[in-house]
Amino acid sequence: MDFNDIYQIKDEIEQIQKTYELFNEDARLNRSKAARVEFLTNVRYIEKYLKTGGRILDIGAGAGEYSLYFARKGYAVSALELSSNNIRAFERKLHPEDKVELVQGNALDLSRYADGSFDIVLMFGPLYHLHGEEDRQQCIREAKRVCKDTGKLFFAFIPNDFVILTEFSFHNDYFVSGDYDKETFALEDFPFVFHTVPECREMIRRGGIRILHEVASDGISELMEERINGMDEESYQQYLRYHEYICEKPEFLGMTNHLLIVGEKG
Ligand SMILES: C[S@@+](CC[C@H](N)C(=O)[O-])C[C@H]1O[C@@H](n2cnc3c(N)ncnc32)[C@H](O)[C@@H]1O
After folding, report:
1. Residue 264 DSSP SS3
2. How far is the CA of 157 from the centre of ligand 1 (A)?
3. Which atom of ligand 1 is nearest to the CA of 139?
């Protein structure tokens, strides 16, 4: 099975399952210094709002990078993930003492969780996998329902316009042969679903969420991967400070492979 076969699969859930049989999600955020920028940035924003004893729900938890990080800091974490392959990768890393309740499920239906039961709700995945706007709104509604009135919600997106540049860095002829509309520059939504920054903002506001932060989580880190990975520790720490300095600036917001929107119930 390769991505061409997965492209033919019509059932969306089956398509997500098969995507993560090919894609090594377990290594995505920790394979290099450059890859780590997204994780470190998102954690910094989560920690701005996380209070002692806070309960976390990680929806689309992948191989557990965020869940395990917070569980090992002593927080109670509930994690929900669709892909069997990612669940297996997550389980391989779980220690018996980790306070993580991991279940297989779909972000569209969080009925196993009571209303207002979490302080922090992470949704890093479903909104850039589900094709239907009504499905995405259902995910946002469910996330909002299970979040406390005082809680914070964190949503990840993959910005359309910057992915075109990232693809160009891999394929010399991308501007001619790439899978995007040559007039509108809208990418073909496979294997992810892409949105412009205004579309992400609109989606979240439509879901009744008041936006607190819009953040370029990884910025240009993937484009500059080789350079960043070659940095010594002092340079890398200063690069991270620079990234922190620019990551909420409107002029850099779409210049990222992952956009984070932080909000609260509106
Ligand atoms: C790129 S991974 C990100 C994993 C993790 N949240 C992170 O940020 O490192 C996206 C994840 O979202 C999961 N996902 C996509 N749609 C989902 C849905 N409808 N319900 C639950 N999980 C979903 C995928 O299976 C995948 O593990």
Report:
1. strand
2. 11
3. 19
